[in-house]
């Protein structure tokens, strides 16, 4: 066939019978020659085009959070502020659970209100939603059967859709980082630009772990419920274990075993990138994606 | 290449189990290249399972298949680009217009000839500017038909394509199928009822409970189908006619099937007061012998009805029904996961 010479050549029927010529009656498609291929990453484009509304909504949610919280810092913050006094009067366990130990500093404030709490919640929710829609949602709706009957391989589908989730999460992280940088001076946060990048990378990695977990369970089971539970569960368990680990030095080691801890335990907004932590976040996401590819390749796709 | 062997699709003992339930039991058949092949059967007969196996959407438990000369397990995207598939239960959602959806699919499975989408949409009467989620069932089905035909694939696999279509569009669909076959494309089309595809199909496989119970040309099916026969003979009597019928072994079918339709058990009666003999009953198989036998008499009236294909197909569905099908249904309930995994056939 004249199409897609670059594609993997699992079958080349005409090669078996070079005498036939291409435009034979058995190959009507070959008659309509104009070769429109190759289209690069068609599924990625399809996913991104189909999800711009949702991407916009989540971006607005994150932006609103930053714009609501950050300008409050000058009136709350400072070591001698009323907030510090209030926090000092609260039980230390609660402070540690909320991650408000360092809330009097700009980086501590941004991290504990946004990256560690509301932003984390929104990021995890968006990642889980997209991750579970990518495979399980489409499979339950019957759309996966249709698309896989077309000229696309299963690993291509998983990889392009994972990439589509990743791109959207990168946008969320970038929007957050840009807005934070924008309000940084007026909100007197005193954040260094590189530290913002480092925190956003950790923020992204945390989202990727949830998203890829949801996508992987979708590829394994085809069930949206399980897929959503996996994405949300990873985030929730990670947060809770981290909170327990924050309670005392004895439990602190627990934080090294959770994605939340990998992202934030070395306070990237104050001290810069924690490369091993980032490697763990991105590595685990990559591992989940590899499992997703293997899982979807081997199983039956269920119908609508 | 498939065309050289004459088979576009060839399966050998192709089987699929879902848990303990046997959805497809050792399917062996060949579909000639360039032909229109019908797969007929009631719900749960294994039609959808068989078609999904050809697309590598599900994988066989045992047995093998060759689609356009390639095993679907290894054919990959290159093979599926040469196939147009309409799922049995096409559900389209999303805020995307029909045209955009078709363009997306064309990017994956193309090339699609310029104007092909518009021409097809126009023929089936589909508005491409509407969002797919707002389309009625029939219009979604039209969209499904367009996406299957648009890239002029070598093989069309259409699962219940006429469901939801109004009679006019059904006719258009049959024309599309006939044209495709005339171009050398092979078409496999499934249906609950033979009548929907009988006018276009060259061969049909009649399936029940995962097995093919009859594989023949539509013509053979028609020839062997039951026909209602009624003849009035004059200048003779019942005994003579009965003797003539019984002398010819080939017509024994008539005498055994005539019960209930006429005055005596052999289907021969002598209408009161007329002095003529009436034969009536259901004839299975060739009518040639009957006509030759009747030629020996004075035929006053003769009626041989169109064979009722649907009736003979239904008879095939019913054969030994109480055994294996009930077992199937029990399996359906026992394996809870199966209800999710197994393709629902409507």
TrEMBL record, chain A:
Residues 1-27 are annotated as: Disordered. Residues 1-25 have a biased composition (Basic and acidic residues). Keywords: Membrane, Transmembrane, Transmembrane helix. It holds the Pfam family ABC2_membrane_2. GO terms for cellular component: plasma membrane. The chain crosses the membrane at residues 55-73, 114-136, 163-184, 196-218, 225-245, 275-296. The keyword Ribosomal protein does not apply. The keyword Oxidoreductase does not apply. GO terms for molecular function: ABC-type transporter activity. This is ABC transporter permease. It comes from Subtercola vilae.
UniProtKB/TrEMBL annotation, chain B:
It comes from Subtercola vilae. Gene3D superfamilies: P-loop containing nucleotide triphosphate hydrolases (3.40.50.300). One of its GO terms (molecular function) is ATP binding. CDD domains: ABC_DR_subfamily_A (cd03230). SMART domains: AAA (SM00382). PANTHER family: ABC TRANSPORTER, ATP-BINDING PROTEIN (PTHR43335). Residues 9-234 form the ABC transporter domain. Belongs to the ABC transporter superfamily. InterPro entries: AAA+_ATPase, ABC_transporter-like_ATP-bd, ABC_transporter-like_CS, P-loop_NTPase. Keywords: ATP-binding, Nucleotide-binding, Transport. The keyword Nucleotide-binding applies. Residues 317-335 have a biased composition (Basic and acidic residues). Residues 336-346 have a biased composition (Basic residues). Residues 316-346 are annotated as: Disordered. This is ABC transporter ATP-binding protein.
């Amino acid at each position: 066939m004249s199409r897609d010479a670059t594609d993997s050549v699992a079958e080349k029927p005409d090669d078996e019978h070079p005498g036939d010529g291409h435009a034979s009656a058995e190959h009507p498609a070959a008659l309509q020659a104009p070769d429109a291929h190759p289209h690069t990453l068609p599924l990625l484009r399809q996913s991104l085009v189909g999800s711009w509304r949702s991407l916009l909504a989540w971006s607005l949610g994150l932006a609103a959070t930053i714009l609501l919280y950050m300008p409050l810092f000058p009136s709350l913050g400072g070591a001698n502020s009323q907030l510090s006094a209030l926090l000092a009067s609260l039980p230390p366990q609660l402070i540690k659970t909320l991650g408000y130990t360092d809330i009097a500093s700009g980086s501590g404030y941004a991290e504990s209100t946004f990256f560690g709490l509301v932003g984390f919640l929104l990021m995890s929710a968006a990642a889980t939603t997209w991750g579970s829609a990518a495979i399980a949602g489409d499979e339950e709706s019957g759309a996966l059967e249709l698309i896989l009957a077309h000229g696309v391989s299963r690993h291509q589908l998983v990889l392009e859709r994972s990439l589509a989730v990743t791109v959207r999460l990168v946008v969320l992280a970038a929007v957050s980082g840009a807005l934070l940088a924008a309000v940084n001076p007026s909100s007197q946060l005193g954040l260094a630009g590189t530290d913002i990048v480092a925190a956003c990378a950790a923020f992204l990695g945390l989202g990727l772990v949830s998203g890829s977990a949801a996508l992987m369970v979708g590829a394994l089971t085809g069930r949206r419920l399980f897929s959503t539970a996996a994405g949300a569960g990873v985030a929730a368990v990670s947060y809770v274990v981290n909170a327990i680990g924050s309670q005392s030095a004895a439990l602190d080691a627990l934080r090294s075993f959770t994605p939340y801890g990998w992202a934030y335990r070395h306070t990237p907004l104050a001290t810069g990138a924690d490369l091993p932590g980032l490697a763990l976040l991105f590595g685990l996401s990559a591992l989940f994606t590899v499992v997703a590819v293997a899982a979807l390749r081997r199983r039956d796709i269920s119908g609508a | 290449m498939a065309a050289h062997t004459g088979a576009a699709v060839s399966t050998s003992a192709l089987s699929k189990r879902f848990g303990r339930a046997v959805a497809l039991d050792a399917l062996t058949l060949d579909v000639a290249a360039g032909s229109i092949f019908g797969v007929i059967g009631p719900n749960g007969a294994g039609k959808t399972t068989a078609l999904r196996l050809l697309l590598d959407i599900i994988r066989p438990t045992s047995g093998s298949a060759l689609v356009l000369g390639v095993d679907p397990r290894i054919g990959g995207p290159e093979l599926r680009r040469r196939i147009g598939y309409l799922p049995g239960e096409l559900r389209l959602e999303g805020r995307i217009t029909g045209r955009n959806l078709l363009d997306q699919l064309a990017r994956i499975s193309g090339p699609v000839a310029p104007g092909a989408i518009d021409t097809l949409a126009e023929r089936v009467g589909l508005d491409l500017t509407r969002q797919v989620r707002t389309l009625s069932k029939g219009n979604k089905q039209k969209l499904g038909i367009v996406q299957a035909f648009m890239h002029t694939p070598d093989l069309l696999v259409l699962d219940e394509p006429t469901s939801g279509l109004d009679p006019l569009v059904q006719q258009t669909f049959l024309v599309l199928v006939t044209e495709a076959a005339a171009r050398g494309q092979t078409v496999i089309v499934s249906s609950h009822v033979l009548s929907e595809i009988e006018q276009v199909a060259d061969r049909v496989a009649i399936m029940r409970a995962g097995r093919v119970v009859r594989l023949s040309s539509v013509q053979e099916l028609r020839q062997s189908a039951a026909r209602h026969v009624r003849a009035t003979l004059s200048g003779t009597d019942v005994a003579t006619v009965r003797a003539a019928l019984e002398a010819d072994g080939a017509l024994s079918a008539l005498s055994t099937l005539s019960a209930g339709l006429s005055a005596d058990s052999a289907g021969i009666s002598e209408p009161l007061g007329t002095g003529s003999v009436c034969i009536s009953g259901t004839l299975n198989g060739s009518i040639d012998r009957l006509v030759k036998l009747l030629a020996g008499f004075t035929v006053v009236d003769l009626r041989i009805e169109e064979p009722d294909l649907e009736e003979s197909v239904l008879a095939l569905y019913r054969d030994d029904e109480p055994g294996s099908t009930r077992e199937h249904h029990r399996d359906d309930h026992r394996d809870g996961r199966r209800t999710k995994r197994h393709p629902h056939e409507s």
